[in-house]
Design a protein that fits this description.
The protein has about 260 residues and is mainly alpha-helical. It is about 85% helix and about 0% strand. The chain is built from eleven helices and no strands. It has helices spanning about 1-5, 10-15, 25-65, 70-80, 85-130, 130-150, 150-180, 185-195, 200-235, 240-250, 255-260. The longest helix is centred in the middle third of the chain and has 44 residues, at about 85-130. The chain is rod-shaped.
């Protein structure tokens, strides 16, 4: 039994002691049991280390493949088997950080898409109604889209749409000012529209028409002033002959039928 014990033939050692009484035989039996427990513990530890290594390797492979949720699950299983391992803990924290960053980008991409779709709907409304307020709404939505853009390309996409909306807003303001007779303000607004990217031919034609309209308005204002001054002088003239001549000159300056009368 001792010879077999020395060769780690534990089962054979016990078999040799079958039916053998005495303390010495029991001592050998106890030693066999102790060695069996040690071997069982060693086998368990080796198996645990193999499982840890397998989980770490699997996590590394999944992380490189961009499968972060699966990688995190694997590294957590490894950490459960060896919670005090610093390298495993650092790997888990790294993957959690990468996953959080990826999820944040995904959230921003979804928000960007939502805002861009809303901006497109608002743009169609603005083109149909063509008011300053409608175009302002488009710009406000595009600002939010740009703030949530996850990449430079998507920021540029929102920026290009914003240029169109800024031009539309300024153009709408110009028309509103024109309708109110504020031609100088209309020209300022149309210049802002032209500064927002490359001005389309229609905008350039509108600006030219505004300039002509303003020129005609200035000429009428000058004639009105001259008419009023001539009327005042004619009314103050005491010589009837001169007064008639002056009233005739004033009438020639009148554009309003009432003034001509």
């Amino acid at each position: 039994a001792r010879e077999r014990l020395g060769k780690q033939q534990l089962g054979g050692a016990l078999a040799a002691l079958a039916g053998v009484p005495g303390e010495e035989a029991q001592s050998v039996r106890d030693e066999v049991e102790r060695r069996r427990r040690e071997k069982k513990n060693r086998d368990f530890e080796q198996e645990r280390e193999k499982r840890i290594l397998a989980q770490v390797l699997e996590s590394t492979t999944l992380e490189k493949a961009g499968k972060l949720e699966e990688a995190l699950a694997s590294i957590r299983r490894a950490e459960t088997l060896e919670p005090d391992n610093k390298e495993i803990r650092e790997a888990r924290l790294r993957i959690e950080g990468s996953l959080a960053a990826t999820q944040a980008i995904d959230d921003r991409r979804r928000a960007f898409k939502t805002f861009m779709e809303a901006a497109e709907g608002a743009r169609r409304t603005a083109e149909a109604q063509d008011t300053f307020a409608n175009w302002q709404r488009v710009i406000e939505i595009l600002v939010k889209a740009q703030q949530n853009a996850p990449t430079d390309e998507e920021r540029r996409e929102a920026g290009r749409a914003g240029v169109v909306a800024i031009r539309g807003r300024a153009w709408a303001r110009a028309r509103e000012c024109e309708s109110a007779g504020k031609l100088e303000e209309a020209l300022v607004a149309v210049d802002k529209a032209g500064a927002a990217g490359e001005a389309p031919p229609e905008l350039l034609a509108y600006r030219e028409a505004l300039q002509k309209k303003r020129g005609g308005s200035d000429a009428r204002a000058a004639r009105k002033k001259a008419h009023d001054e001539a009327v005042a002088k004619a009314a103050a003239e005491t010589d009837p002959a001169k007064a008639i001549e002056m009233w005739t000159e004033a009438a020639d300056l009148a554009d309003d039928p009432k003034d001509q009368a």
